Amino acid sequence: MLDRLRLVERKLNTSKYYDILLSAALFLLSLIVYSTHWLTSPPGISGDASRLGLYAVDFLQENLTPFYVYHLFAPNPLIIYLQSIVFAMLGYTNAALRGVTIVGGALATPAIYWASYWLFKDQGRTFARRVGLLAALGLALSTYFASFSRYGTEHALLPVVELVSVLFLWRGFRRGGWTNFALAGLFIGLSQYVYIVARFFPIALALACSGAL
What we know:
Elements (H helix, E strand, L loop, with lengths): L1 H39 L6 H16 L14 H14 L3 H26 L5 H16 L2 H7 L8 H18 L2 H14 L9 H12 L1
C-alpha cells in the first residue's frame, strides 16, 4: 500500500514537471522560429515602431511619461515601459526595439497551452494537454504570427495578455479561489494599456463566459 502511494505521488510530481518543461520547450521553439524569421526578412522598421522607440527614448532621457489618454492620441504605454527597460540594459538598437515584441509573441505559445488546458480540463487531463499542445504548436510554427511579432509594434503583446486572462479566468472556474479571478481581472485591465482594440476584449470575454456558464 505504501509503495502504491509513493508511485502515485511520483506520477503527480512528474506530471507537474512535464507541464512546466513542455511550456519552456514551446517558448524556446517559438522564440527560435520568430527570431529566425526576423533575421531572414528585410530589416527595415515601420513608422509605428520608430514612433514607439522615440517615445521610449523620451521617457528615458526627458522623463516624459506616456500616460494613456486615447482621445488625446497618447501612446499605449505598456510597450514603451518595456522597451525602456530593454533600451536601458542593451542600448538603442534595432534588436532591442524588436526583441520586446518577439519575446512577447513567443510567450503567447505557453500561454495558449495553459489557456487551452484549463478551458478543456473538464474533458480530462490528457485531452486538455493534447488540445493545448496542438494550439501551441500551431502558434509557434505560424508564419503569420512570426511576421506579426517581428515588427516591434504594440499589438504583438496583446495575444499573450489576453490568453493569460483566459487562463486565470477558466482556472478560477475549475478550481475556485479569489486569487485566480483577481489575476484574470488584473490582466484584463492591463490589456487596455496594450492596444486600443482590447476595449472590446472584456465584452467578448463576458459573452463567452455567459455561454459557458
